Amino acid sequence: MSNGALTRKLGFWAALAIAVGTTIGSGIFVSTGEVAKAAGTPTISILAWVIGGLIAIPQVMVLAELSTAYPQNGSGYVYLNKAGWRPLAFLYGWSTFWALDPPSISIMALAIVSYVASFFPFFDGMNGKLLGIAIILAITAIHYRSVKEGGLFQVIITAVKIIPFLIVIVLGFIYMNPGNFSYTPASGSTETSLIGGVSATTWAYTGMAAICFMAGEFKNPGKVLPRALITSIFIILTLYTLLAVCVIGLMPFEQLIQSNAAVSDAVKYIPGLSDIASSFVGVTAIVVILGSLSSCIMFQPRLEYAMAKDGLFFQRFAKVHPKYETPSFSILVQVIYACFLVFFGNLTALLGYFTLIQLLINIMDFAAVYKCRKRDDYKPVYRMPLWRITTILAIAGAAWLAWGTFTWAPIQGMVAALIVVATGLPVYYYWERKYGSKAGKENIVA
């Protein structure tokens, strides 16, 4: 097994592309309608997108400080570990590997296949599953062979995936109907509608933290990570808000709140695109999801790599390819697991219930800054303004999302959380006794 380490080869544009590319996914095609339905009026719907983005700002500021204090691969695992919550750090990675990261890869691959099948019905059933696996393997080949080339590919695919949205925004402003903004609901509470609308945007703003998983591979992380995190949230906030304005301006609001494919339905109101609306959105969706898939395959294996280096995961996951300088074994195992899950779509849906414990650990992740600030080695290049207030706001935003997830599937979420603890803690104590005690002490001292 190679004892090599990952090196710093990525710059600002790769960081920004990973952050933006991970965040903007397939959900935006339907979330515009969901937010409008929850908000109840055009004005509140637009305001919900703005507030939803503002809520994410304290979270990225906390992550920016933590990532520049400890510019290592592993993100939340590293911060929880540094805070002295080592068992919780392990559960963070344990649940992420088995129930979140590889399943997300398989789900995105199948989503791409579903859009491809709308153009080519041949890719249905087993043929579609095989295509999904081929897509995963093709993207994996890029990120397996070179982190630098993988970063370049991510920059290109992220730029390409934004272009269709910019087309809709520009044409939307040209052809929108101002009368659509005067819609008034028959009944409803403005306060409740605003809360509901903001809540519906929350998932659309998650993903910027992806670059923290690769903090150990960015050049000059003290400057690159904060700039990329904060810039990404403002880019995404602006894009989402403008897109929401255009969608509302293009189609009657009473139709928007009934739409399950808001962007596609809105495009039908644009002269010149109305006849090819479904094809336009289908191609856009393929590119958008492909960018998110690439980002996930790139950053996700870094978590298990970091855990294995600490003696808290299978030791082979710490292997670095001697030629390509990538976490080769971790990448391969994750995509093999994801390819296996492609054949079990229902299983990936079931694994989604583990999201609740991940969100609860994320809350602790933000809270870790209180403990880390007391450490002698805590010397972040970036320090967030009004750090106590900012951290409280970050925790509150994460708690809101966790509560929303709990109300969606309370029993399933609690059972999943118990499964993670019941399976994870025995493994943690085994690995801690066998490999981790020395690594853990070195981590505390480091």
From TrEMBL:
It comes from Bacillus infantis NRRL B-14911. One of its GO terms (cellular component) is membrane. Keywords: Membrane, Transmembrane, Transmembrane helix. It holds the Pfam family AA_permease_2. This is Fructoselysine transporter. InterPro entries: AA/rel_permease1 (IPR002293), AminoAcid_Transporter (IPR050598). It is a multi-pass membrane protein. The chain crosses the membrane at residues 12-32, 44-64, 84-100, 129-145, 152-174, 194-216, 228-251, 276-299, 326-344, 350-370, 382-403, 409-431. One of its GO terms (molecular function) is L-amino acid transmembrane transporter activity. Its main location: membrane. It is found in: Membrane. The gene is frlA.
